[in-house]
Amino acid sequence: MLGLQILEYKDALTEPLKKPGHWTVAYIEPSMAWPVRVQRIMYLGDEYWIIPITSDAYPGIAVRDADANDATKEKILQFLSVLSWLDRSGAVLVSFGGGSSPFAFQRGKGHGFTIREEIDLRYLPEVTDVKARLALGLMRDGRGLSHVAYSFLSFYRVLEVAVGRGQAIPNWITQAVTRLPNGRGKDALTNLTASGVSNIPQHLYVSGRCAIAHAGGSPIVDPDNPSDTNRLYKEKPLIEELAELAIEEFLGVKTASTVYREHLYELAGFKRIFGQILVDDLLAGKAIPSGTNIDVPAISFQLHGKGPFEAFENLNPVHIVQEGSKVRMEFEREDGRLRVKFNLDFENERLEFDVHNGVFGAPDDNSSIYARHKAETLEFLAGYYGNGQLRISNYETGELIARKDEFIPVNVMPDYSEFDKDVEFWRKIENNRKELEDR
After folding, report:
1. Dihedral (Cα; 148, 153, 154, 159), 10-degree rounding
2. Are 71 and 110 in contact (CB under 8 A)?
3. pLDDT of 121-167, one tens digit each?
4. Staple 345 to which of 108, 112, 350, 419, CB 3.0 to 4.6 Å?
């Protein structure tokens, strides 16, 4: 990616990572894109630090002020497995280290990595189930291994964790292959069927799992036989996608693509606020009974990675209007200086926000506050046009209520230089008015 710079390890660490403590670090070789800068991630109540890609040392994940025991190391690897699941990629542990500082674990400079600015955590699942954690660990291992046979075996072991043993796996595979999406897994299935394999579950078990795990029977996978390796390369996408599907269906851990397709996150928080009974009535087209009390909190209306914008903070509900299975909501600052409007489309699981008809400001009252809010509104609009990700949070608690994915302008070519000029203009007006107000 343009604009991303890989630093030396000594230059990449930020101040929090230079602070002495009891550090435990997992140094890894990721096959996923890895950040080029330090990233702090809170996950299930624990703090993790992403050690970035550098020119002279392995990247990794660090934990501070924790006992350097197997329990801490296990937590780090479980977190790494969740990141790998999120990215549908792998990562291999190189070594554990640490001490009073997350010291560099040197590597050759000829190494190559795929890089990114930071890990996108929007679809990061919270995994607490023991079986699910094991399955994700096996997926990470399978996707990170360069040895095709052991990679194949890791994916089959996922089925044994998620689906069960004995006849449960072949029974499930028989009907699961009909639900595979178009892609490499389905192509592998088509090629197997075309080659004369009629019993797919038996083939994957006998010629795959058993042939790899056991050397005393027949068939076996011979590491010196190129045809065995070539066959497994062709069949691996099938067992990998079946493993992924099994984790979703039996263990309830959804892939990022499934979460995106369902878009349940757009209204999840509002569904909790409205309550299931009221949501069911809305979906059925029933009118909300007069006098119904809905405890809607004040909100922060913000953009991910932008702002914060003071003008869009502490907005209180002023109108809730039902329109069939939709609910139009309007929120306003207590001082009346700014109002936002959006719709909750419960039938289609969508948060509808029209940037051209969703933000309303009060008339100019010649105050510095007006000028400041005007500048912030322009910054908000520019950020939204620039593929902004809308986030609605509870103002008091910070809890995320709803969010949308990147806004993609259609038939619009925003001139961001004009936005910048207008923002600068109103910032100057703000300063001028503030000087007059302070006299």
Report:
1. 140
2. no
3. 888 999 999 999 999 999 999 999 999 999 999 999 999 999 998 89
4. 350
Residue 200 pLDDT greater than 70, yes or no: yes
Do the Cβ atoms of 135 and 251 come closer than 8 Å? Answer: yes
Bond from prior residue into 308 cis (ω within 30 degrees of 0): yes
Question: 111 - beta bridge partners?
Answer: none
Given pLDDT bands bounded at 50, 70 and 90, which one contains residue 2? very low
Q: Give CA 311 to chain center in angstroms.
A: 28
Q: What is the Cα 152 distance to its own chain's centre?
A: 26
In this predicted structure, the answer to whether residue 12 has a pLDDT above a threshold of 50 is yes
